[in-house]
């Protein structure tokens, strides 16, 4: 009598069906916080994105009312 024995592999045990959460998209702006550099435009555009899977990192400085205007929009 001949009997076929499998390799002992159970695909239900070794197949991972769980998908990890995607990492947030990292956006970086480095520069002067001013209207001339388009910071208010950037912030308005990002506010319209429906999927909240992003993070914005603002690095920079500035002075006066332009800087304060940019910071108020955050």
Structure characterization notes:
- It is a single chain.
- By secondary structure, the protein is α+β, with helices and mostly antiparallel strands.
- It has a domain at 23-72.
- It contains three helices and two strands; from the N terminus they run αβαβα.
- The protein has helices spanning 11-14, 39-47, 64-72; strands spanning 25-30, 54-59.
- The N and C termini lie far apart (77 Å).
* Number of distinct helices: 3
What's the story with the biggest beta sheet? 2 strands, parallel
Could you report the average pLDDT, rounded to the nearest whole number?
84
**Per DSSP, what share of the residues sits in E-state strands of 2 or more residues?**
15-25%
| Helicity level | 25-40%
Quaternary structure type: single chain
The parts where pLDDT drops under 50 for at least 5 residues are: none
Pattern of helices and strands: HEHEH
Spatial gap, N to C terminus: 77 Å
């Amino acid at each position: 009598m001949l009997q076929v024995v499998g390799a002992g592999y159970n695909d239900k045990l070794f197949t991972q069906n769980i998908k990890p959460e995607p990492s947030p998209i990292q956006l970086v702006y480095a520069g002067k916080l001013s209207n001339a550099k388009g910071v208010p435009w950037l912030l308005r555009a990002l506010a319209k994105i429906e999927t909240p899977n992003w993070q914005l990192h603002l690095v920079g400085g500035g002075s006066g009312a332009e800087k304060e205007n940019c910071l108020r929009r955050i």
